[in-house]
Amino acid sequence: MCSQNSARSQLAEFYWRTVSDIPVVSAGTHPAQRVHPRAITVALRHGLDLATAAPKLAADVLTGDELLIAVCDRAYEDLHSSLHWSIPDPAAADTRQAFDTAYDDITSRVDHLAASLEGEPSMTLHPVSERTWESLHTDGRLALKQAASRLATEFAGLYGNETIERFLASSYDQFAHRATLTKFLSLLAERFARQRLHALARVEGLHTDGKPVVLFLCTHNAGRSQMALGFFQALTGDHAVAWSGGSEPGNEVNPAAITAMAERGIEVHPEPWRVPYAASRLRAVVS
Question: Is 87 part of any domain?
């Protein structure tokens, strides 16, 4: 997904077809009238034929069951996708080098994603009671082991394997018990664990990039604090780090809160969280 579906997302879609059998489609939040000529040209240089490709509107192709990947910042802000690949728009420079660079970036990310999904059950449905870290089948356990290895490399010198595996396991369990389609669980768990580890590193002073860290707090973390976090993230984007928590977290976020935020195009975290242990060290705590 990108804003115009005229270059980056089209290249990602057509390259994906060469490396994976998993169905794929691309679209845009504000589709252009045609695919960019330089995108067609760079694709041809790599054996991909975009001559008949046409931009599509996101609302016309989304079903709600996809692993949604935004390859540009604007689409991510509009859709709050599962993954965000912040790839610079080659059309802004409109040069061969810009499109070559974008193509190389896209194909590298696609290769990595396809490899991380390889071997996962295509449409495996597990009983709720079986969807835990400890009860994973071999393929799922391997995928999470690979995720732990990637996180260990990324956070080398900050956190050890035990901490990383604990965060990955708890992140997996947060998604696993409510999922009906388990195809992308390990990928979602890795993404969520990465976000939590980055946030923890900032709170503990291990990662200083000047971004403020904010916690929105209420008792059950089932409504108000979740909504405040959603609005805050929508307004600040990557300029701040924030999450929400509760002193006595409930069992689920109030469905009315989820609906109200969805009507504004904002996704809230699906479950309440306990207040982080390092809350007193945050830049701002809003209760």
Answer: yes
Sign of the torsion formed by the C-alpha atoms of 173, 179, 183 and 184: negative
Structural domain for 109, as ranges: 8-117
Cβ distance 10 to 26 under 8 Å? yes
* Distance of alpha carbon 130 from alpha carbon 186, whole angstroms: 15
Residue 268: which CATH number? 3.40.50.2300
Q: Give the C-alpha separation, 96 to 86, whole Å.
A: 20
Same domain, 197 and 215: no
Cβ contact 219:246 at 8 Å? yes
Asked whether residue 107 falls in the same domain as residue 21, the answer is yes
285 strand-pairing partners:
215
Same domain? For 27 and 55 the reply is: yes
User: For the segment 77-102, what is each residue's pLDDT rounded down to a tens digit?
Assistant: 777 767 888 899 999 999 999 999 99
* pLDDT beyond 90 at 269: no
In angstroms, rounded to a whole number, what is the distance separating the alpha carbons of residues 80 and 235?
12
Contact 205/233 with Cβ under 8 angstroms?
A: no
Together in a domain, 16 and 103: yes
Mean pLDDT of 259-269: 80
Please give the model's pTM, rounded to 2 decimal places. Answer: 0.48
